[in-house]
Amino acid sequence: MPDQYDYDLLTIGAGSGGVRASRVAAAHGARVAVAEEHRVGGTCVIRGCVPKKLLIYGAHFAEDLKDARRFGWNVPETSFHWPTLRDNVLADVDRLNAAYTTTLKNYGVEIIHERVTVTGPHSVRLASGREVTAGTILVAVGAHPVVPDFPGNEHGITSNEAFHLEAIPKRVLIAGAGYIANEFAGIFNEFGSKVTLMNRSDVILRGYDAQIRDRLVNISTGKGIDFRFNAHFEAVEKNEDETFTVRMTNHDPLTVDLVMFATGRAPNTRELGLEAAGVELDANGAVKVGPDNRSTCGSVYAIGDVTNRIQLTPIAIREGQAFADTVFGGKPTVVDYHDVPSAVFSHPPIAAVGMTEGEARNTLGTVKVYTSDFRPMKNVLAGRDERALYKMICESETGRIVGLHMIGPDAPEILQAAAVAIKARLTKDDFDATVALHPTMAEELVLMR
After folding, report:
1. Hey, where are the domains in the chain?
2. Dist. CA 299–CA 121, nearest whole Å
3. Which of 71, 83, 203, 269, CA to CA, is 20 to 30 A from 332?
4. pLDDT tens digit sequence for 3-35
5. Cis peptide preceding 348, ω within 30 of 0
């Protein structure tokens, strides 16, 4: 890059994608700076999947401690102390923030702890007023929770605030039906809250297989979670006793101690100044990019949730790696978005890769579907009726597996290896030819009929 610029690369945002892109670009010899107004680590590390997964681990102990008695353990009466878990989780976030910061510094990346505004194809203005230039600008600012617009919406929180609660609410209403809503529904329910999940339609987890979604609704209902479908907010009113009355369409009013919005996420492009560089956004505010992550401005690229392609941390990391290798490493790389595995860390968790049955039928016409509907050994001895469901969708003529969907204990851990096989275009016969690991839940993958 010409020396007339302060940096070869200026990355806006130090989330997982921005950190990876900056680190790799620096390893390729680029002069790199990262501008981050908050903490290094981004949504996933600071206020998303990492701390949430720790809460999910904590929530699982509620059932594990009960089940332990059936396995011969003399477990006394137990109680849950939220501040202990909360503070330990936040301490781990601090550790990760420090680790990410150290990684960038070890690669010679300068960290600018200020908000920036793009002022041109090669320039940004820091909050302090200083102008900074770069040969290439990478936008990796992520996304933020969307709060629906209705009277009293200021009384609710989002997932950002959920990690800092003073106490676990006795009654909580969660608005939404995606993975965040269902994960926090499971978390709060296991911690003892009375949970109501409110959704504008009658479908949860749109994009996942219908049988798997239905199984989660049935299990969640059995655990005590209430669902209010086809419900739109009319108002939230704060009462004198600090509780809230939620008024909604098609259902009676509900009084709760906490209202949480998990109603989607929107790209963080507002007031970023991208129009000054000729960067085009779509109707949702996402940066329009091509396969090489380049925007409509030749010197500005974008990766991660701000592009609104697939909002997953591993995708942002892959895009960051591909960007750095392409632009600074002389190794043109394009991310493959086919057969991307995903998971919902609900109770029990869901994992999926490839097409749902509906998608496969619409795309391929005829398909073969294999299932295994079983009660895990641990649940049998624990006296739990909760059943796991594995589902495999195959192309009729070749037997190639085009989709695999699971709900049950450790489903995401099991699916990761199976996703490799599906990415490799293996067939049902290949799975059948593999000897089962017995006794495991995973063996059902090679025994389905």
Report:
1. 7-144+266-327, 153-263, 348-446
2. 6
3. 269
4. 789 999 999 999 999 999 999 999 999 999 999
5. yes
Residue 250 DSSP label = T
In the beta sheet, which residues pair with residue 392?
A: 370, 404
C-beta of residue 344 within 8 angstroms of C-beta of residue 408: no
DSSP, residue by residue, 169-222: -SEEEEE--SHHHHHHHHHHHHTT-EEEEE-SSS-SSBTB-HHHHHHHHHHHHH
Instruction: Please compute the mean of the pLDDT values over residues 149-162 and round it to a whole number.
Output: 97
3-class SS letters over 61-88:
HHHHHHHHHHHCCCCCCCCCCHHHHHHH
CA distances from 153 to 157, 158, 233 (A): 9, 11, 9
| Fold category of 153-263 in CATH | FAD/NAD(P)-binding domain (3.50.50)
List, for residues 408-433, the tens digit of each pLDDT value: 999 999 999 999 999 999 999 999 99
Among all chains, which residue has been given the structure tokens 């925007």?
295
Distance CA 259, CA 245 (A): 9
Distance CA(349)–CA(415), nearest Å, equals 11
Cα 438–chain centre separation = 32
**Residues contacting residue 25 through CB under 8 Å, at least 6 positions apart:** 8, 9, 32, 323, 324, 327, 328, 329
> How many other C-beta atoms are found inside a 10 Å radius of the C-beta of residue 434?
14
441 and 414 in contact (C-beta within 8 Å)?
A: yes
| Same fold across 7-144+266-327 and 153-263 | yes
Q: For the chain, report the end-to-end CA distance as a whole number of angstroms.
A: 59
The CATH class for the domain spanning 348-446 reads: alpha beta
Catalytic one of 144, 155, 338, 438: 438
Q: Cα separation of 309 and 319, whole Å? A: 11
Amino acid, res. 196:
T
**Rg of the chain taking only CA atoms, in angstroms:** 24
Report phi then psi at 138, rounded to 5: -115, 120
Q: Does the annotation count 144 as an active-site position?
A: no
CATH topology of domain 7-144+266-327: FAD/NAD(P)-binding domain (3.50.50)
